[in-house]
Amino acid sequence: MSWRRLGLVYASSRTQPWAHSHTALPVPVHLGGDTFRFFFSSRDADKRSHVGWADVEVGETIRVHEVAQIPVLAPGADGTFDDSGVGIGSVVARDGEISIYYMGWNLGIRSPWRNAIGLARSSSLDGKFARYSPGPILDRSPEDPYTLSYPCVLRFGPDDWRMWYGSNLAPAVGNADMQHVIKQARSVDGIHWTRDGRTVIGFADKTEYALARPSVTTIGNGLLMCFACRGSHYRIGAATSSDRGTSWTRLDAAMGLVPSDWGWDSEMTCYPALFWHRERLWLAYNGNGYGATGFGLAVWEGSLPL
Q1: C-alpha to C-alpha distance for 187 and 200, rounded to whole angstroms
Q2: Model confidence over 216-227: pLDDT tens digits?
Q3: Of 282, 231, 279, which is closest to residue 259 (Cα–Cα)?
Q4: Regarding beta strands 160-168 and 21-32, do their DSSP bridges make them parallel or antiparallel, or are they unpaired?
Q5: For 73, which of 34, 51, 121, 262 could close a Cys bridge (C-beta 3.0–4.6 Å)?
Q6: What is the pTM of this model?
Q7: ∠60-55-9 over CA atoms, to 5°?
Q8: How far are the Cα atoms of 18, 233, 280, 294 from residue 68, in angstroms, in the given order?
């Protein structure tokens, strides 16, 4: 029982000015049949991230059909919370509207960056996405005093929304380790969120110092999460929950994904995205260089250890 890697799917060709490097943070949205639209973040020559997409046929044979020529979301205007880049977290469809929950950031001086969580919406997957507001929907607060990162949002009912996101436990100054954990927020409308600041997934041992980019899917009567673990090297960890994401049990050894022996994901595995297709569990993820080598796919083989 393990993930079977299907290899590299897509890496930015550098033919577009907004996609000079990286194909990071893949987020799949089912278009129909075997075709998924994978949203991702790419960097321009100034290292400012934009959001684009690639349409991919998912199966034993992987084919890339079409790639966005222009970004659906670009960095914000100077002075806004996301003027230095946008990193996609998750995509949610509801009532004829598509919502992108994302991380935006500013560059800093004493601290190298400041992150917050934003929302952009569109009436179509093929359209550009308009920001809900110039400001973030979640920012620094008494519950999250330092920085916030990539959100994963699920809707369990009309007024039951959950978000899992990253948050620093200490300031990131100079070369200090981030101490970045995963927390949870709740909402009745997907826009206004409440949080208590409690860590829902912390470090497995003393070698870990950052957990980031949670991805959550339903599995049986519970939830499965994959996330990036930073320690001696980047790898993908996993956890399960039976109470809609309030408490979690880690099972990295059973369902995590470590770097391969060679190739595009030999140095790290990171930024996972779980999804179901044809009753099978799939994983999109990045490899070396935090997405510099593109994103690939793996599929779960055998029964699930849950």
Answers
A1: 17
A2: 999 999 999 999
A3: 231
A4: unpaired
A5: 51
A6: 0.96
A7: 50
A8: 11, 32, 27, 15
